[in-house]
Design a protein that fits this description.
Elements lengths: L5 E4 L6 E3 L8 H6 L2 H6 L2 H17 L6 H19 L5 H13 L4 E3 L3 H10 L3 E6 L5 H7 L8 E4 H4 L6 H11 L6 E5 L2 H9 L3 E5 L12 E2 L5 H4 L5
Parallel strand pairs: 1-4, 1-6, 4-5, 6-7, 7-8
Antiparallel strand pairs: 2-3
């Protein structure tokens, strides 16, 4: 008998990927500031600028609307301009923030994602999302037709905490109605897998993008690989 009843997926680098290669720097950003120009910046200065700009999202993940997300990303870009000494204006920051939220083409499905979810759904699994994300995700979930197969969602911006906070996983388990040992969680980050595992959920690491730190957990390269891995839990 198959002991797994429910499969929780992360979104970023698990089912979705940013078209620009960065979740916070969209294509419009690189039209203003070329990748070559950014690469010429002092690495430590750039990393400090980026981390400083993003810190408010980590300190306060709670968010209530797309408008709030636009306002917060406007501040993100303004801080980035200032800290990295980029010649961006307030108007640039607003345009980048609006594009980040309203342009559905800033991210795309990882190949095989939708087909994998359909197969899992047809085989009777409950499917959930556990993701650190922002209010703009709802329109993308619908546009990419993920909502045709996903049964439940746990979003950081709604709960006000980020993974690896165990509240994210407890929320998902409560919504699922299943025991931890009946669930799998797929994510690219080891710290999140450790948190899920601490509750008894089976962790599976996906290493779709380059540079991912790997650990001791069962590993897949792409979403569709989970179909074969599930045989180990039967």
């Amino acid at each position: 008998m198959n002991q797994i009843k429910c499969i929780f997926f992360d979104l970023g680098w698990t089912l979705l990927e940013p078209c620009s290669g960065d979740w916070n720097l969209n294509q419009k950003f690189y039209e203003l500031f070329s990748r070559e120009k950014i690469s010429r910046l002092d690495y430590n200065v750039w990393q400090h600028a980026y981390n400083t700009a993003y810190l408010p999202f980590i300190e306060n993940p709670k968010m209530t609307s797309e408008q709030e997300q636009i306002e917060r990303y406007t501040r993100f870009y303004l801080t980035l301009f200032d800290q990295a000494k980029l010649d961006g204006t307030f108007q640039h920051a607003v345009k980048l923030a609006v594009d980040m939220v309203e342009n559905l083409a800033t991210m795309s499905l990882i190949p095989g994602s939708l087909e994998t979810l359909k197969t899992l759904k047809d085989e009777g699994y409950r499917i959930g999302i556990i993701s650190d994300t922002w209010p703009y995700i709802g329109k993308r979930i619908h546009a990419f037709k993920l909502d045709e197969y996903v049964d439940q969602y746990t979003y950081s911006y709604e709960l006000g905490v980020l993974k690896p906070n165990v509240f994210m996983f407890q929320d998902a388990l409560e919504k699922s109605g299943f025991k931890p040992e009946e669930c799998i969680f797929i994510d690219d980050q080891i710290k999140n897998l450790e948190a899920a595992g601490s509750l008894g959920i089976h962790p599976v690491q996906i290493v779709y993008h380059e540079g991912a730190e790997t650990g001791e957990y069962p590993m897949i390269q792409k979403p569709s690989d989970i179909l074969n891995l599930l045989k180990q839990y039967q």
